[in-house]
Amino acid sequence: MRTLKTTPLPILIISFLFLILPFMSYLATASFYRVPLLNLGKVFMSMQPFQIAIIIASLFVSFGILSRKLVGYYSFLGFSGIMIVYNLWLVVLFYFGNSFNIAGHSVSGNELWGNFFLTIFLLVSVFYFLNKEISAPYFSTESRGWRKDSRETIPVPFTLRLGDSSWSSNTINISTTGAMVPVSKDFLIEEGDKANIKIEIENMEGEKIFPIFSSIIVRVDSNENLPGDHQVGIRFLDDGDSKDSKEQLNYFLNERYSPRYKVASGISFGKETFQDEEGKIGNISEDGLYIETDKGDFLTGDEIYIRIPSTPPISMEGRVSWANAKGEFGKKPGFGVHIVLNRNPIRYRLWLLKIRIRQLKTR
Q1: Alpha carbon of 228 to those of 66, 224, 236, 329: distances in Å?
Q2: Tens of pLDDT along 216-247?
Q3: Are strands 277-284 and 261-262 parallel, antiparallel or unpaired?
Q4: Whole-model pTM above 0.85?
Q5: Where a domain ends, among 256, 272, 300?
Q6: Are residues 215 and 286 in the same domain?
Q7: Using CA atoms, how far apart are residues 3 and 308, in angstroms rounded to an integer?
Q8: Are residues 174 and 278 in the same domain?
């Protein structure tokens, strides 16, 4: 498996900030105590043990984030928690009568509060940008951040154009920041290449639209458990031409691919009646579901009747949004369904709520 050579700018910046933190701390200590910069021993002797521990921890966090390993993400969360608790502890001690001095300067309560809120603001800002990049689909299909499960696949028809060459298939995953797509070994592509990707989604009226994104290739993997000879990570570029496309994609993902939940339940379905065939529910959301079945004659666009055998049963009508007869994308053979008409909407929402509560209890 090839590694990511083109590291996203936010991760480079965050890694750099944690890398220079020890040097900034060293310079600040030397300045406060008026110690020559080259007198390393005396500068470090002037530091508190906690300050030295933070210097070591920040270096560990910096290299962990830069390596894009999960340990780096968790070390950042631990670092943030310790810093917030420490600053809050100083504030509490101050109001219990303790005083603090730095190089002969008496620290006031307002300064302690200011440092506490500044620490929270900076760490939350870093967390926002860091988590946004880690959760982007172009990194991988595996679990990221605090997610314990692999990211839900979102197969959307696409055409990737690189120079005079193009390749069309279905995405493995997609979000407003990027996508992971399968390509053939004959489609020559490398990290750092710039390309355009056109996707096929539906707008608010259910009409097909074809947003186009300027993008850069940031990863090329070879995973035999996923579709394609290679899996290509694509990061969408922030330019004026892609703004409308991102808004359209954001609506599509929020409306068509609302949170999905795994369900251990059978289901009956058919093109003519509710009970032509039987299968299992792979996952389900408020707007759709994935039906696991070996019946490969259900194609994209087919209208279908669905019945969930709850007590009492839930009957719905839908449209096949994508077919997966070969069992690709890490799923069993089957097809995705967009719910068009729910004949028992209240019953369905209550049933879905029970599933969500049950899953929360088992976490």
Answers
A1: 28, 8, 21, 10
A2: 898 888 877 677 888 898 888 877 667 788 88
A3: antiparallel
A4: no
A5: 256
A6: no
A7: 44
A8: no
